[in-house]
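Chain A, query sequence.
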Amino acid sequence: MRMASWIAASLFLLSALAQWNDPDPIRWIALYLGATLLAVGAARGQFWLWPSTFATLIYLATAAPLLPSLRAADLSAFTSFGMSSLRDEEAREALGMLICAGWSGGLALRAAGRRRARRRRRGLLLPLVVGALSTALGGCAALAPTPATLQAKAALPITIPLGPEVDLRPRTTVASGLANPRGMLARADGSLLVALAGTGDSAAPGSGALVELTPPREGRRSVRPLLIGQESTNLVALVRRDEVFGLAGISAGDDTVLLTLARFGGPSHVLAIEGQTTRPWAVVHGNINDMTWDPRRRRWYGVSSSHDEILILTAGARSRRFVKLPPLAQGQDAVPGYLEYDPTTDRILVSLFTGSPLGEEGGTGTDIIPGAGKIIAVDPDSGDITDVVTGLTAPTDLALDSAGKLHVLEISRDFVDAVESRQAMLGKVSHGGFRRFSGRLLRIDRQRGSVTVLADDLDAPTNLAWDGAALLVAQGMGTPERLIPRPDGSITPLDGVIERIELPAHQP
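Chain A, predicted structure.
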């Protein structure tokens, strides 16, 4: 027993040290160090009943919310040091906590047996300990998300038809030459805040920036940097698509304007924009691409696409999970990208980009299934999920007008020319994963059940923002200036642009 305990102590200590690079290291290090101390005590012949029992309850409570990930994880999650899917992280955490619970539970039983022998009360403490552990396990199971929460509820969603109505609206260019424009916010004075994710070039870090486009004068705007030197990363080596991460969403609510800095594996940061300056607002354990304000519950929500989560955000605190989204019908990760509070239904609308059936780090990067994306509605109280729009291909941002009509971007209608590295991509004309100039803006009337194309041939559009009675569309995901093909066969440098699309009369 002593030799086994020393071995267990060594393994638990190594597990604690391995958590140093975790997005939330303190909690996991403390948990594994607790198991280490119990193992060291056992190796020295000391068995503590109540500390071991308490530790068992803590480990079970920590493991309970992660148990669904064990069903979704591949065998490779436990047989290799690498991760074939980001779900592997949670599966490993769940297994680690179950091992710790089994170890501390065994020590509690051993301690109970010794105490029982000393007091000659055979058959008394052991049932108490077993009963306590069974009660704790039942309570932890009750804390875990229920199947009703995890599975999409039956609904009658609007399915995107193969031949939707077409009403192409006038378009004008607001700005060009931008390095991956993302979130935007039109101000009352006519200026425009824009988050630039940057070039994604590791040789030139810190290319991300928050800029202000001044009100137009004689048809031109000047660019005023408000925040520079921000992290910018190209995920091409991970997802085999020319996809740049960095500064992302800008959202307003509760007299506050927030900006996200998304890191794919986390931790990410949320900043508050105050006039011409920014300040730290919160830390997010995963990546965070977008946020929305719920005025009824006075709560901020965000999405983490790398963890398939909807989060609750709080100023000065770490985020906490609200809903863990299950895999889609064909096994893909849900990949929530953007979200918007819908006052007409009191739901949170979320766009699901969807991942590859082979995992985000598996496959070719272009095997995303056309038509598998959708918009879901999430109940802010229960977390229940309902399909709203299905049949989308890689939907990104969404926006609602005052009549409840939904506007949705699709970044691309096809995925081609997967690439293995940024350098290989720069050496030739390539779509780079997203078929260039195949994005579109859809208008969905949920009352009539109609779908209308308002803008077509957009180049990898990512973000929407209201500007009066028009929508601003940020386009040009990818490496600036690399050569990309146009639909007519010509070649052009990739450019980050913002276009203004005039819409039928309405109030945003």
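The chain has a mean pLDDT of 86. The first strand starts at residue 158 and ends at 159.
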